[in-house]
Structure formats: C-alpha cells, structure tokens
Amino acid sequence: MELLIARNPDPDSRLPYLLRLPLGSGLVFATKDTWPRTSGLYCHPLPLESWPADADIVEEVGLEACTRRGAAIDVVADRGRENRSQIVFTRARGREMVFWQSPRTRKQARPDVTLPTARAAGLADLEIVVDAHERYPYRFSTQQVSLVRRGLPCGDYAVVAGGRTVAAVERKSLADLASSLTSGRLRYALGELAALPRAAVVVEEGYAKVFALEHVRPAQVADGLAELQVRFPTIPVVFCENRKTAEEWTYRWLAAAWTWAGEEGSAVARVGEGQAPGGLEAPEPSSREVRAWALAQGLPVSDRGRLRPEIVAAWRAAHGGAGPSGPDQVQ
What we know:
With 331 residues, the chain is of the alpha+beta class. Helices cover 25% and strands 28% of the residues. It has helices at 174-183, 185-193, 218-231, 243-271, 287-296, 309-319; strands at residues 2-7, 17-21, 27-31, 41-46, 57-69, 72-77, 84-92, 95-101, 126-131, 145-150, 157-161, 164-172, 198-203, 237-239. α2 packs across α5 (287-296). It is elongated.
C-alpha cells in the first residue's frame, strides 16, 4: 500500500503535484507540495482518470494505514518522521474544500464542520430519546435539547436519524457498573449496543473509585472492564467525575454521533467506503452476542443451543459480515 506523488502534467495548474491515495479504487488530488509540513495544503479533487499512465513519480510513500473516518482520511506512513497526516473534507468560504494536514500544521481544518460554538457540534437543537425505564433521567437543562421519552431496545439515551437509532449511551453509577459486571448483565448489554452504528457507556464516577469499592473485589471489576473493552473495542467506557459531568459528556457525544451519521452519506459519496479502521476485519461475534442482538431486534431466539440459520443470516445482513462459527456456535 503506497501513497504516490507525481508531477502535475498540466502546465497551467498552480498546483504542481498530483497525489494518489490507495483508498477504494483510488483518489487523486492536485496539491501544492509533497507533504503538509508547516501548513495545510489545499487539495483539488480530480477524477481517477486524471492520473497519467506515464506519471513522473516524485515520491512513493509506503503506508501502514489509509483509513476513512467520516469526512476525513487518516494516512499513516511507514517511516519514523513525518509519518502522520490527514485528508480532510470540510467547508470554507461557503463551499466544500479539501485540505491535507499533519500534526505540525499550524491551522487545522475540522471534518465537515463550520465554526465551533458553545452548542455541541454547532447544533441549534438536538432531539434525544430517553428510555422510558430511566428513573432519574438527565434533563440537559443547560443545553439546546428536545427530550422524547419512549422505550429503547438498548441504552438509556439515544439519537435517531433517518428513522433509525444511530447512537446510544448506557448510563451507569459505579454501584450499578460493579453489579452488572459481576452478574454478567453488562456483557449482554454491550452485545445489544454493538448492533448500533455508535454506542458508549458513561460512568458517573472517576476510574480511581473502582479501587475503593467495598462489597466486591476491586480487581474483579477492573479485570472485567478490561476484558469487555477488548471484546467490544468500538464501545468506549468513559469515566466522568460526577453526574453533572457525565450528563455534559453524554450530550456532546450524542451530538457528535448524530452529526457523524449525517456526514456518513455525503462522505461515502465523495470518498468511498474505503477500508475498515486500521485495515483489519472485525472479529466474528460469539453466539451469545448474536443472541443478545436478536433479542434486542425482537427476533424469536432460544435461550441456549444452536442458533437457527435465519438468525445468523439476519445478523450477517445487518452487519455485512460473517456470523458465529465453530464450537462457539453451540452453547
């Protein structure tokens, strides 16, 4: 996997280089320099056919990763210095623009984001769905939020886009976290949350308080958390210092997830699907996770035994990947 930089054969262009990224079938840009060293480089998107068959290659950069994340592409070069950069699709001066930037770039563009405000992601109003079973829900009284109460299949707070739940947050007190970890309930909850495009768990205490627990061995909780984070790497568990901070974090995370969901469609149209994060395939789920997902979707499934083929097929259709296989398919 290589990033190619060639001389621009167009004599009238003020952008002397062509950049070709190995993402999907390939992306081509005209740009000003061979790397964004001290300033972001404007990139002019070109059709793939613009890359000349006899390109005058200036530099071939081996890559460890080239991954699209929303309206940005993370590029990691296989070298010790000047190895990290990002192609950002954003808006400036009322039109869409593309910039190539690095950590050393003095002015950073944000993916698909206009000027920041005190409102999360610049949203004038955000509708948050609160699970009807939440006894003492967050009110988000200091934020621009509309609350809707109804039953959620998983999580305590969620946002909806295009008629589907695109992100959810599971709220936990420290005592509830410890209880659900030791009983195994949290594993099933994360299995349900993993079926959503975005999900997170927020804890209303600092992580250090785990080691002050009295009615359960702290190491058991810490080890259980570590194991679940390895098993469900796409679901962050965030420790906040108190309930107020957890509420604020939930608001801003849901706003970012809602904005991300809106960006995905336009980003795919402009950039393409690209590769999975890190270029790695997601691990196959266990039958327990598929069973928890099926229950969350209202599909009939037995408590134990082999999963029916139609349940596995439904999981594959929803996730675009393989279902459980091997000995783990039988409980």
